[in-house]
Amino acid sequence: MLSKREKDLIAQIWGRLTPVADDIGSDALLRMFATFPGTKTYFSHLDISPRSAHLLSHGKKIVLAIAEGAQDISQLAVNLAPLQTLHAYQLRIDPTNFKILSHCVLVVVSSMFPNDFTPEAHVAFDKFLTAVALALSEKYR
Ligand code: HNI
After folding, report:
1. How many domains would you assign to the chain?
2. How far is the CA of 58 from the centre of ligand 1 (A)?
3. Cβ count within 10 A of residue 50
4. What is the CATH number of the domain that holds 76?
5. Are 62 and 117 in contact (CB under 8 A)?
6. Range of the domain at 124
């Protein structure tokens, strides 16, 4: 459960992240592929080499979807409903991977915005990304 202060912090930081959504998303994906190579199998139809057009555009989509979720965290599951369906029924992504990618996003944000990434912001971000991963996992049962 996020406090009002934590929700405000998240909205504030995300406002700064969206202009560099492709950098954040592509770096998070690269880290996910490097640390959990099995995740690459879902992307065999795309060029996932560093800075490739596919990687940047896919990374941007992911980050913008998370940023949109941050606008109204109380409605996260409702707003992510189309993505829940896509990932569970069409793409058939193992839901464990949502936690992995969320963690990679956290790592990238901390390294790109070290001054904003206070312990308080860290907790708020971690809680929020955990909620995103959980929301995306909801259609699996
Ligand atoms: Ni995910 C497509 C958001 C985790 C594999 N994914 C998308 C799209 C968005 C998105 C947005 C584009 C939908 C569209 O075009 O309509 N993905 C998210 C979010 C997370 C996430 C917010 C969680 C943090 N996706 C993952 C994970 C994997 C994954 C963990 C696999 C390991 N996603 C995919 C694949 C596609 C995809 C594969 C289709 C890519 C394509 O273009 O063909």
Report:
1. 1
2. 7
3. 11
4. 1.10.490.10
5. no
6. 4-140
Residue 66's contacts (CB-CB under 8 Å, 6 or more residues apart) are: 14, 105, 129, 132
In the reported structure, the alpha carbon of residue 12 is separated from the centroid of ligand 1 by a whole-number distance in angstroms of 24
Q: Which of 31, 6, 21 is nearest to 103 (CA)?
A: 31
What is the reported pTM?
A: 0.96
Ligand 1 binding pocket, CB closer than 6 Å: 39, 42-43, 58, 61-62, 65-66, 83, 86-87, 91, 93, 97-98, 101-102, 132, 136
pLDDT tens track of the chain, all 141 residues? 789 999 988 988 888 899 999 999 999 999 999 999 999 999 999 999 999 999 999 999 999 999 999 888 989 999 999 999 999 999 999 999 999 999 999 999 999 999 999 999 999 999 999 999 999 999 987
